Amino acid sequence: MDIFMFVTLFGGLAFFLYGMKLLSDSLKKTAGGRLEKLLNKATDNQFKGLTIGAIITIAIQSSSAMTVMLVGFVNSGIMELPQTVGVIFGSDIGTTLTAWILSLAGIDSGDNIILRLLKPSCFSLIFALIGIILIMATKKQKNKDIGTMLLGFSILMQGMTMMSSSMEPLKEMDSFVSIMTAFKNPLLGVFSGAIVTGIIQSSAAAIGILQSISMTGQLTYGMAIPLVMGANIGTCMTAILSSIGVNRDAKRVTVIHVAIKLIGTVIWLIVFYSVNAIFDFDFLNSPVNIVGVAAIHSVFNIANTVLLFPFSKLLVKIAHLIVKETEEEQEFKLDERLMLTPSIAVGECRNMMVKMVTKAKDGLDKSMGMLINGYNANDFDYIKKNEEKVDGYEDILGSYLMKLTTTQHLSVEDKNRSSRILQAIGEVERIADHANYLSDSSEEIANKHLEFSDAAKAELAMVIPAVREIYTMALDCYLSNNAKGADDVGPLRIVISEMCDEFKANHVERLANGNCTTEQGFVFNDILYSCVRIAEHSLNIAAIAYRYKSSSKTQPDTYMHDFKQRKKNDEKKYEEYVQKFRKPAAKA
At what angle do helices 342-373 and 377-407 cross, to 10 degrees? Predict the structure, then answer.
């Protein structure tokens, strides 16, 4: 043992983690709906998933790689957690083929071309070659993303190979062989097998070493059985490493993988040695050969599947108990059981909608504040996270309400309440997007040290309070069902639109006179564009409140048009807003 062994070990770990991140990120880009549908069809029941898991693992000769891919798929949102359980069981069975191949072809697989091609050290290099060709030689982004995915998988597999190879010299050491054979106590045998396999990062490699040791005639069935069980536990180390930096459901894949190994080992140890205490198995003291080790490996994994496969749903529950959701994640949950009582379900959606509107308003307030008071890193980070939360609310509410309205019989009132929410979530989400855009503008102003002219500052000081008032008014009208208040939104929207048109023209004039730069002009126009769009989305939200006022006779297909047209004629309110927000713009 020397320092280079440890350098290779930890270097391989770095490659492994980076490859996992690269693979997961590229999967998000390349998967799309087609791969998701394919995987959903392929794993729409646990038996089909079991078969697919076994076939894929046989093809790539690595249950660890299969588990890593599952973690990546779940982390990318391609697969749901329950779909992975059958695949994990199938992978456990598929990985036993390696031991049988080794038992037929011998430990030295150097002359076996097929076996060498199936080794990660070989096929990962082929993947890397294909991936780099796609990245460098193609122009389509989709092909580049696929190339990145292949390259990420290759880096991941090379990391695994480096970690395994760094520990390879151990099998030649007498002390290492002693570790494998000295523990006649079953519990110590399980522990020894788990530790060694965890270091090597491959149960197949650990089983291969056991097969090699068995050829000396020093390994008995009594030693081999707990060592094989421990090796199956140790292989979970790869899955544990792959769960670093992924989402909670991806971590739960690892929990299920570990639970299957641990629960199965505990149960079968108790059963096997309890029966042995009664019948005294003579073969436990007999030397085990290379085929016997392969047989133990297969029997254990098949028996484990037979025992635990019917409890797949329970394993998912265990994973949820161990990897619990945070309070923040729980707020993004809507219980589908509430759909049996639609009025309560709609009420819960309403509560979530209030949270969504509040988040959107908080983000806008902070982004507007930065435009007036200057860039603030904490507020910037808050706006970014806030916008992601608003997006999450939109996805959850949209999916839940569509399912509710298509599967349950709703009263007229509940239909109207559901429709109000469905129509508003898109508008609120877009307002949050523009809060995000405005924060980007503030960051650009700070990073590039841009300084607007006094005239531009004065114009922003006029339009920003007006925008603040319109979205506050519209959101309050929506939440309080205040149709009367909604009548006042239209005139203010016109004032804001006219202000922004005039200020854009003024800025063009300043550019022509050399009083500001083109770069400043782009940022200034971006800000005014977002102000206009926020006003438009606020008007749409107010129109939703207007539509559902109790005295409204407006038909669903004409209410928006009528609402906007009516506002144009509200000259009194328009003049009030002009007096409140319009001041003579300073000319450069």
Answer: 160
Kindly state whether residue 345 falls inside one of the protein's structural domains.
Answer: yes
Q: Are residues 488 and 366 in the same domain?
A: no
Residue-range definition of the domain harbouring residue 315 = 3-324
Q: Looking at the domain assignment, is residue 110 inside a domain? A: yes
Q: Which of 69-73, 324-328, 490-494 has the highest mean pLDDT?
A: 490-494
Strand extents, DSSP E, 349-508: none
Nearest one of 90, 92, 115 to 103, comparing CA atoms: 115
Return d(Cα 463, Cα 139) in angstroms, integer: 44
Query: What is the structure's pLDDT at 212?
Result: 66
Mean pLDDT score, 490-501: 90
Q: Say if CB 243 and CB 250 are below 8 A apart.
A: yes
C-alpha distances (whole Å) from 566 to each of 473, 476, 498 are 18, 21, 18
Number of domains in the chain: 3
Q: Is residue 329 assigned to a domain?
A: no
Assess whether 442 and 352 both reside in one domain: yes
Residue 10 belongs to a domain: yes
Tokens 């980007």 belong to 440
Q: Is there a single domain that holds both residue 157 and residue 227? A: yes
Determine phi and psi for 527, rounding to 5 degrees: -65, -45
In angstroms, the CA 19 to CA 159 distance is: 8
3-state DSSP assignment of residue 287: strand
Cα–Cα distance list, 400 to 334, 336, 344, 350, 358 (Å): 7, 8, 13, 12, 20
Helix (H) or strand (E) holding 132: helix 120-137
The 10s digit of each residue's pLDDT in 424-450 is 999 999 999 999 999 999 999 999 888
Separation between Cα atoms, residue 15 and residue 21, nearest integer Å: 10
Q: 380 with 401, same domain?
A: yes
The DSSP code for 488 is T
435 touches 467 (CB < 8 A) = no
Q: Check whether residue 468 and residue 405 sit in a common domain.
A: no
Which of 449, 483, 516 lies at the terminal end of a domain, its last residue? 449
